[in-house]
Amino acid sequence: MILEMKVPSPGESIKEVEIATWLVEDGDYVEKDQAIAEVDSDKATLELPAEASGIITLKAEEGDAVAVGAVVCLIDTSAAKPEGDAPKVEKKEEAPKVETPKPAATETKTYATGSASPAAKKILAEKGMSASSISGTGKDGRVTKEDAVSAVPSMGTPTGGSRGSINTKMSMLRRKVAERLVEAKNTTAMLTTFNEVDMSPIFALRDEHKETFKTKHNVGLGFMSFFTLAVVRALKMYPAVNSMISGNEMITYDFCDISIAVSGPKGLMVPVIRNAENLSFRGVESEVKRLALRARDGQITVDEMTGGTFTITNGGVFGSMLSTPIINPPQSGILGMHNIVERPVAINGKVEIRPIMYVALSYDHRIIDGKESVGFLVAVKEALENPAELLMNNDVKKALEL
Length: 402
Known about the structure:
By secondary structure, the protein is of the alpha+beta class. It has helices at residues 118-127, 145-150, 172-187, 200-217, 223-237, 281-296, 370-385, 387-390, 396-399, and strands at 2-6, 16-22, 29-30, 35-40, 45-49, 54-58, 65-67, 71-76, 190-198, 243-246, 249-252, 258-264, 267-269, 272-273, 310-314, 333-337, 340-347, 350-364.
């Protein structure tokens, strides 16, 4: 029996996927539920499992865009498994082909070896040229001073270094990210406001409790839980930031689904922490770890990246000092975290060295005014600089479940 394997629907709004990598080869014997391919949608990379055991015949090439419901391979379920033949679980990724363009044909002119006047030789030496590289107008081809003055050295001759290039097709996910970034820039009235946060109180809390926290909860006490809960608090204070535009209406949410931008193997991914307002520090850290691992391993699903009412992105992990993050549409706000640097600051009239992080809020000015945007970022700053009182209700051990 020949089984036609069709592309399943990864999500309601997805109409096509791209064959990113075949994990098996044409003619291989595959086992039921064995991963046979990785497919890219415009939101995630998903594995395609075999629906039955048998000999597989591939019907699409890597890089092909195929519609949901289209046949991508055939499986001959009546074929016997070859003796001693273990199923192949993965195919080594081939290095991208390097296409080195052939140098364009150039016309090389050679001139008779003519003598040059002393003045011409001096000028040519200053230009790094030889008399044989130009045509002299003097007697018997002699290079005159005027010839040397008017000679122009070539600036476009390759120096012998590599001049190759690589053409790599953008994945469907990367193309979708590009489209959404351009859409955000073109369709929103985006503005960014900045502030700085003294991270000393958070450093002190982490230094005192991070080992106990990790031992008890099997997860680290990072900065993301502080920022997420500070954002949740600020969103409750400024609900316009937790809103988005739909047609002529403004939708304001009474829950906080926080998208977190993470770097995956295929590019930027933005999984969502659902109902972050109901999570503790342990809950946020556990969910961040789970989502980050799934994104790193290419296991993140479309559902896990769908929705979100506000986004947090951390360019600081890559060393960014300051940036203007781009809104994740249709959301209306995104908070950018950056690296932490010891800086001199004025504290009660004295200069002290403190760990400072610059933070940036990009927002859609169509529905969020300056008052709300600045107030929101100040509220985040206040919570981060006084976490024990504003995020932990003055009971640190209870908040950290220690």
